[in-house]
Amino acid sequence: MFEQTFKNIDDILHKDAGCSSELDYTEQTSWMLFLKYLDDLEFAKSQEAELMMEEYKFIIDEEHRWSSWAAPKTASGEFDHDNALTGDDLIDYVDQELFPYLKSFKQRADNPNTIEYKIGEIFGEIKNKIQSGYSLRDALEKVDELRFRSQEEKHELSHIYEVKIKNMGNAGRNGGEYYTPRPLIRAMIDVVQPQIGETIYDGAAGSAGFLCEAYDYLRQGGAEKRKLKTDELKILQERTFYAKEKKSLAYVIAIMNMILHGIEAPNVIHTNTLAENLQDITPNNQYSICLANPPFGGKERKEVQQNFPIKTGETAFLFMQHFIKSLKPGGRAAVVIKNTFLSNTDNAAIALRKELLESCNLHTILDCPAKTFLGAGVKTVVLFFTKGEPTQSTWFYQLDPGRSLGKTNPLNDDDLKEFVKLQKSFADSDKSWSIPFTSLDQSTWDLSVNNPNTKDEIVFREPSSIIEEIINLDKESELILANIQKVFS
């Protein structure tokens, strides 16, 4: 129903001089979607208040509501072209009046968890990049066709928005920066098995894929697939999901993605997670579960490194320390990290592996195949661990989908079924094995993935092919020598 509308919006933005990539299309669509969502939400709440004979206090002043400036309607409900701003007038209004008004909400909000604060934060970070007021008017009319008034509509919109995030993640950038493959996230959640009442945290949220998938999992009754009670739904909405994100665009997308999945006021904070000193993390800000795919390959400045006991410039290693500290005792984590973490010989990597193995039970390592993350040139593993008990044994699973992964052939849920099934009992198979803690080299704590079940087959070549290769090599040698001779003659 909405897919064509999104395509039409992209076509409009593609023709505008201010938008040059999939990143811009998603960013610009996001702020318009957010305001349309807010208008539909306020409309629904005002209707509910009217039924209860109560007065609803609108968040947005009437003159700045979507239905006043973006999509004014006539008395008959038709689009009011006579009173709709367009051209330079529309651009001037959006840039000089609307955005400054929305940005000011941050100062007026009671606390960061309110929708008012989120409005201020989003419009303090994002800019209108659409240069033509006529393009903006066309885009607004298309966005106005979208509806957020039923669960089915939100579900469909969330699905299309996820596709946009996926495309954006592959728009000439590191695919893992914005988009972690959803089948991988779902498998991670299936292993961790969150429960209602537990808090779930991602300190490197990106587009909030982990929290959205965890919400869907719990909303459908978790592992038991049971119907949730009203108080459980309230816990799910308000006191379950927590996130931090450093980048402005990802922050806006994370909020919009969570809203579309059904979380009305997401607890996403726009901050550099690593700027927080580890000593400042107390039991009050620890979580039951950490799910994350932190950025890797980045370098952090010296002052940021001072926040951590194990000093390193590698962003992912700092995040690992942050996640361990952010877990409650007995808390569970599933974290994606590049596979070199398992074997790097620098002091920080060795110290971090020792810390992880001694303070947590690193019970499972999932070895992911190349191109699991489109656009990322590194191989990754997923670490599953429980805080507060030392590692006794680690179960490895080498994921092999039996084909080369790529843009047209991505990871799917079936690829991970065997992993999830075998992990429950840490069963051995051709692709899985266990290593006891006592067998690790205590000078390096090396955890390299070496499948002991792989049989090294020696393939003997046919004599005829060996002879043919020798003849070809001889011919190449003759040619090279002849050329050298010409130079000196």
TrEMBL record:
Family matches, as InterPro entries: D12N6_MeTrfase_N, DNA_Adenine_Mtase, DNA_methylase_A-5, DNA_methylase_N6_adenine_CS, SAM-dependent_MTases_sf, T1MK-like_N_sf
SUPFAM superfamilies: S-adenosyl-L-methionine-dependent methyltransferases (SSF53335)
Keywords: Methyltransferase, Restriction system, S-adenosyl-L-methionine, Transferase
Record bears the keyword DNA repair: no
Signal sequence annotation: none
Domain DNA methylase adenine-specific: 153-454
PROSITE patterns, per database record: N6_MTASE (PS00092)
Any Pfam family the entry gives: N6_Mtase
Family: Belongs to the N(4)/N(6)-methyltransferase family.
Keyword rRNA processing in annotation: no
GO term, biological process aspect, one: methylation
Organism of provenance: Catenovulum sediminis
Every N6 adenine-specific DNA methyltransferase N-terminal domain range: 4-104
The EC number(s) this enzyme carries: 2.1.1.72
Gene3D superfamilies for this protein: 1.20.1260.30, Vaccinia Virus protein VP39
One GO MF term attached to the UniProt entry: methyltransferase activity
Transmembrane segments: none
Catalytic activity: a 2'-deoxyadenosine in DNA + S-adenosyl-L-methionine = an N(6)-methyl-2'-deoxyadenosine in DNA + S-adenosyl-L-homocysteine + H(+)
Descriptive protein name: site-specific DNA-methyltransferase (adenine-specific)
